[in-house]
Automatic annotation (TrEMBL):
This is Uncharacterized protein. The keyword Transmembrane helix applies. It comes from Methanobrevibacter thaueri. Keywords: Membrane, Transmembrane, Transmembrane helix. It comes from the Archaea. The chain crosses the membrane at residues 16-36, 42-61, 68-88, 94-116, 128-155. The keyword Transmembrane helix applies.
Length: 162
């Protein structure tokens, strides 16, 4: 079975439909988890996930169609920031509905997808060896520690007791 998303630079109708299909499945699972875990209304979560999915689709399309060598995550981030920036006409709408989607709901589905992807290529993962596993653990631990230090500094600077 061919990959749903092949990562090629060409954008075809088939490729776009694959992205839409994948994002729809991802969104439905996230909305269900969001409802069960956080009791957010399904309709609000669905609109929030539709907004996030549309931003994602536009960002991926821009990465592949624009002649700049910029990652889709940059496009997605900028589009999201612009749409939710105070004073922009879409700000209240986007902020309200996207706030109805909890980050942990999204991350849970994403990590499950990554786990399935890893399981499909377990032999490739094993060839990376112990060094790759150690580096991965160190990167994750360093990111967590760095985030905790920055958060602590900001809390102390704003007067929150440590």
């Amino acid at each position: 079975m061919p990959d749903l998303i092949d990562g090629s630079e060409n954008v075809s109708v088939h490729g776009i439909f694959n992205w839409i299909f994948l994002l729809a499945i991802f969104s439905i699972i996230t909305v269900v988890g969001n409802y069960i875990g956080y009791k957010h209304p399904i309709q609000d979560s669905l609109v929030g996930m539709a907004i996030l999915s549309l931003i994602t689709l536009v960002g991926v399309w821009m990465e592949r169609k624009l002649p700049l060598n910029i990652s889709s995550i940059i496009y997605i981030s900028v589009i999201g920031i612009v749409l939710a920036f105070p004073g922009v006409p879409t700000s209240e709408f986007v902020s309200y509905y996207v706030s109805k989607v909890e980050l942990l709901s999204i991350v849970t589905v994403f990590l499950a997808y990554v786990g399935i992807g890893m399981g499909k290529s377990w032999n490739e993962f094993k060839t990376l060896g112990a060094r790759a596993i150690i580096i991965t653990i160190l990167v994750i631990a360093s990111t967590y520690l760095g985030s905790a230090i920055v958060a602590h500094i900001v809390l102390v600077m704003t007067g929150v007791p440590a």
